[in-house]
């Protein structure tokens, strides 16, 4: 029994020694292979920086697959570099081949999967790519365009009323009213709309007033355009012949009756063209609210362009803006014709 134990002990020690020797040799080999791969990668990067693309490709191909002699990170990096280089050289078959080498080892590698999808899109006809891009981008753009229309229609409803009140206040003979109206026009026409939006959204919280992006955008656009329309309305009122005011007084009308029944009904016919210009500019100015975290048409387009770097999304956004401005232009032209702003010849 003692003899057997001694023999087993010697055999175990011998096997342990062999295992340690094998482990040491393996670690040494892997370490040397890793240092060799690092050196190859450095040479490949240097070749790329000097514009030696063919030499860089040869060096990248020398990086071994992951395993006892290869590193997974270096392997993936080298194959993705080869895929990108061949893609830039328009050799799409090779670009796809190197990406598929990564997928063969790492089936869940997102970078390689996305690259293969990009190569597949590039192989398809140009018209098919454009159609696919439109179908991919339009839902998000239309969602942003809906918010743009909400801002435009709200401002179109509020600003004429606010502009009328400010205009009447400015031409009023009551000093406090005319002074406040003058200040509103002076301040909101004299400072950029972007600065006003920043102050409402970022500045008011310092005073204890916190507003959501939507409310901030509605307030900023409403007050700004009220100030601009106030001057248009004031000019329209003052363009009416003063004799009509005198005639209204002679008939016994008060100031408010004269404005409501005689002056203002004639004024709105004259101010439709400048109103149309302001509201068409409003469609484009809504893009400024993207700076206060509002996701409207321009912000949606910017987010997708930064994500995909695809010019199609910007073209689609421009096309949607053109549709909006065209529809509004024709609508105001029809309105001008209906109220008889210009003489029909």
List the SSEs and their pairings.
Layout: H1 2-49, H2 53-61, H3 72-88, H4 92-105, H5 110-123, H6 126-171, H7 175-190, H8 193-203, H9 213-239, H10 242-250, H11 255-285, H12 297-308, H13 311-339
Helix pairs in contact: 1-2, 2-3, 3-4, 4-5, 6-7, 6-9, 6-12, 6-13, 7-9, 8-9, 9-11, 10-11, 11-13, 12-13
What Rg do the Cα atoms give?
36 Å
How would you classify the helix and strand content by structural class?
Answer: mainly alpha
SS element count, helices: 13
* Low-pLDDT ranges: 1-5, 19-33
- End-to-end CA span: 128 Å
Tell me the series of helices and strands, N- to C-terminal.
Answer: HHHHHHHHHHHHH
- Give the proportion of residues in helices: over 70%
User: Hey, roughly how much beta strand do the residues contain?
Assistant: under 5%
What about the largest sheet?
none
Specify the overall morphology.
elongated
Mean pLDDT over the full residue set: 82
Count of extended strands? 0
